[in-house]
Specification:
The complex is a heterodimer. By secondary structure, chain A is an all-beta fold. Chain A is built from no helices and 11 strands. Classes of the chains: A mainly beta, B mainly beta.
Chain lengths: ~120, ~110
């Protein structure tokens, strides 16, 4: 299957700093990527949907000024957690669906990024 | 509001038995339903997709059913193995839920040797 690479796999940062997480589709063009957050023993919560070349669409309750998403190319989307606080500590996962973001095909997920804010 | 329900309690079964996991949804009319497997600390991995006009789909030891009247999907693993132990997530997609891939809470499966 297709490969989605997420980097870094884990990061520890100080409270108040910003952290950038990259999500790359290695062997296909992903016009749409999804960003999720997962707290321990809970399911994946969709944070936002990013479309190449346009602004991301955020889910209700997700602060768009805190979680900056950029999808500048068909193979790269980034999530920046700005002014991180301990409550932002979580597991962040990206995924890329089939070309055009159709949901009649499987989605491919990155390995996830474990963020710890101290 | 739209809701996806999976049994939050872990399913604990003996190796060789069939595991059956349930996914119920409300206030959805999905065109597809997807099942994923997630291991601890990893991203989900796609298993099967079933369309609304399909009653059943099989892939090796996996079988999925989709009942749009009951708004329910059942996921079966036959001849289960300890390596099948993981969390299984369902995601109704398409139709009125459009392009979003939103998951249920997942059911943890434990297969005892």
């Amino acid at each position: 299957g297709a490969v989605v690479s997420q980097h870094p796999s884990w990061v520890i940062c100080k409270s108040g700093t910003s952290v950038k997480i990259e999500c790359r589709s290695l062997d296909f063009q992903a016009t749409t990527m999804f960003w999720y957050r997962q707290f321990p023993k809970q399911s994946l919560m969709l944070m936002a949907t990013s479309n190449e070349g346009s602004k991301a669409t955020y889910e209700q309750g997700v602060e768009k000024d805190k979680f900056l998403i950029n999808h500048a190319s068909l193979t790269l989307s980034t999530l920046t957690v700005t002014s991180a606080h301990p409550e932002d500590s979580s597991f962040y996962i990206c995924s890329a669906a089939g070309t055009g973001g159709r949901v009649n095909t499987e989605a491919f997920f990155g390995q996830g990024t474990r963020l710890t804010v101290v | 509001s739209q809701k996806i329900e999976q049994n939050s309690e872990a399913l604990n079964i003996q190796e060789g038995k069939t595991a059956t996991l349930t996914c119920n949804y409300t206030n959805y009319s999905p065109a597809y339903l997807q099942w994923y497997r997630q291991d601890p600390g990893r991203g989900p991995v796609f298993l099967l997709l079933i369309r609304e006009n399909e009653k059943e789909k099989r892939k090796e030891r996996l079988k999925v059913t989709f009942d749009t009247t009951l708004k329910q999907s059942l996921f079966h693993i036959t001849a289960s193995q300890p390596a099948d132990s993981a969390t299984y997530l369902c995601a109704p997609t398409g139709g009125d839920s459009s392009y979003k891939l939103i998951f249920g809470s997942g059911t943890r499966l434990l297969v005892r040797p």
